[in-house]
Amino acid sequence: MLHRYYLTQRPVSIGTQPKGFFSFSDDPGELPNGITYYGHVDYDRDLTDQEVKEYELYDGGKNFNALDG
After folding, report:
1. 34 lies in which domain range?
2. What is the spatial distance between Cα 12 and Cα 9, in angstroms, rounded to a whole number?
3. What is the CA radius of gyration of the chain?
4. What is the pTM of this model?
5. Residue at 39 is within a domain
6. How far apart are CA 5 and CA 69, in angstroms?
7. Would residue 12 count as lying in a domain?
8. How many domains does the chain have?
9. Which is nearest to 39 in space by CA: 20, 66, 60?
């Protein structure tokens, strides 16, 4: 299972998200709650609250299989 986090302040780049992500997208968009994002990163683990806060990520709360992505 993967866990998705949205980048709300800047696009995917070196140092803009924690290391060790499984996959990413740099396609911008808007979540149903109105939050604009610059891309997302998928991890095979839950990030810590500190990581989410430090990198200004939005926890998508969506667990999915890699093939479902």
Report:
1. 2-62
2. 10
3. 11
4. 0.85
5. yes
6. 13
7. yes
8. 1
9. 60
Tokens in use for 54?
């430090």
CB contact at 8 A, 16 and 45 = no
Structure tokens at 25: 């997208």
What is the rounded (10 degree) CA torsion for 32, 39, 1, 3? -70
Give the list of residues 6+ apart from residue 46 with CB closer than 8 angstroms, or none.
3
Establish if 67 belongs to a structural domain: no
Q: Are 62 and 1 in contact (CB under 8 A)?
A: no
User: What single string gives the DSSP state of each residue in 4-30?
Assistant: EEEESSS-S-TTSS-S--SEEE---EE
Largest CA distance in the chain: 29
* pLDDT averaged per 10 residues, the chain (length 69): 93 95 95 93 94 94 55
Whether residue 69 lies inside any domain: the answer is: no
C-beta of residue 65 within 8 angstroms of C-beta of residue 1: yes
